[in-house]
Amino acid sequence: MPNYKITVEYDGTNFVGWQQQANGISIQSSLQDSVFKLSGEKVVVYGAGRTDAGVHAYAQIASFAISKNISTDVIRDGLNQHLRPLMISVLKAEEVENDFHARFSAKKRWYVYKIINRRSPLTIDTNQAWCVHKILDTKKMKNESASFLGKHDLNAFRSAHCQSKSSIRTIDDIIIDIKDENIMIEVVAKSFLHSQVRIMVGTLVDIAKGNINRSILDIINSKNRESAGQTAPANGLYLKKIDY
Length: 244
Fold this sequence. Notes:
The protein has helices at residues 27-39, 72-83, 138-145, 196-209, 216-222, and strands at residues 3-10, 46-47, 56-65, 88-96, 108-117, 130-132, 150-153, 168-179, 182-189, 237-243. The chain is of the alpha+beta class.
C-alpha cells in the first residue's frame, strides 16, 4: 500500500487550523477531500504540526496511504487541482517507506514568527504579521530569549487548552533576526505545547515594551501562566519546516 509524503504551503487566515473540526474548514479536511476526489479513497491525512486557526505554513509535512499506486507528479498536480481555489498548495509529493508518519517520525519542528514594528497600520502584510506599534527594545528581547534554550518546564508558556501530560520541553535554538522594522523570531524544538511559541513571543514583546519587569528565567521558574505575557496573534506564526 503506497505511503505518500507531501509538502504543503498554506495561508491559514480562513481556516480553523490544521485539525479537522465541525465548526469550519480545516487544512486536514481539505486535503482529505482532495485525496478522495483524486483516488476515490477515504483516508486520514496526518500532519507534522497541528497549526491553530490563522497560523500559516511554508512547508507543513503530511502523509497518507492509499491502495492505488499513483505517480508523485500526479499526486501533487491532482491534489492542487482539487484544492483550488483554497489557499493551500502541495509543493512536493514523495513515496516513502510504510513506517513513515508525518507526525511521529519528525525529529525537529521549525517555527518562525513575524513582527512588523512600526507606527503605521499594515496593508500588504495584513493577516501575515503582527504589527506592534510601540518601539521595542530589541536588544533586551535578544538577551532575554537566550533563557529559553535547553530543557525547561514551560508550564508558564502553554495555554489553558493544552492537553500535554508534561510541560517539559527542550528548545534547541531561538534566533531573532532584525532588519529595519521587520523582526523574525525563529524557534526550533522537537515538540511544542499548545500556543507555546505565541506565548513566548508575546512575553518577549511585553518585556521589550517594558510591560513586564520579570526576566524570562524568573517566568520559567514560576511555572505560572499568569506570570508570562500575552499570547501573540496567530497570523504572525508560520510553520517553517520539519526535520526527519
